[in-house]
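User: Hi! I'm working on a homework problem where we have to compare a predicted structure to a textbook description. Could you give me the structure for the chain below?
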Amino acid sequence: MLLEELSLFFPCRNEAENLEALVGDALSALPGIAARYEVIVVDDGSTDATPEIAARLVASSGGLVRHLRHEVGSGYGGALRSGFATARMSAIAFTDGDRQFRVADLKRLAD
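Assistant: Happy to help. Predicted structure tokens:
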């Protein structure tokens, strides 16, 4: 059974090495989890290429990916607050930007 809608966000800080694969994993898994979805990258003051990669992912996603940037890091809690506040869908999930969890495993929770 699919969720009606889902916002999935990733609190990130200096995750340039992981971000493209993480968003790719999400865009592959989410059609099997929710009928409508969005992916939000919450960039918490990264000093590496995370902002540039996020901007490229937004531009190529057809509106499925959004990027929220904190110019100055506000910490993990601040990134979480921003992610929850900017989510547009009725169901919200998050996972860390370092790919320690599989996005596809959200299907178990949705079921």
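For your comparison, note the following. The mean pLDDT is 95. The helical segments are 16-29, 50-59, 75-86, 106-110. Good luck with the assignment!
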